[in-house]
Specification:
- The protein is an all-alpha fold.
- The chain has eight helices and no strands.
- The model has no long low-confidence stretch (mean pLDDT 87).
Length: 168
Amino acid sequence: KNEAVDDFVAREIRRGELTIGESPALPDVSAIRELLLREPVIWERHDEIGDPEAIAMRALHMTMARTLVASALAKARVKAPSAWDDLHALWKLARTLDGHPQMMVQTAALAMARMINAVAWKMPLPAPAWLGELQSRDGLLTLLDSFQHQAASYWKSGARMFPTKWLA
């Protein structure tokens, strides 16, 4: 986890200014960006609630997400059209999580879409066509499905989880 990158992304998302501040030193995301843009990535599925591997994978996804956003912002700061490539890779990363019913995976995908939306207005014009797909996508049904999956998993395991089990 890179706190400087996290702080930069959080600051730029909160800022209501078109001007983008100075970025910290950023890791090179070119390999992950090119992979995500080139081919679909399939992640191992973890169905158990509280699975440590699933928790670690979500942390990895969110670290990649924030780093791609930071890279996009740094490029947009100098008006580089390639800034959109980093956000497109992030959108593709979010879409790789579509088949996973776990709530924490779906909230990660939703957070990624929200990050893209939060910084897209700072990117150089014109906006790419894929942004329309992101903006028209309704993630509510997927999120509700994941909530149902989680509630069913609690019920099946006999766990005495409150309030999620009772809310379901």
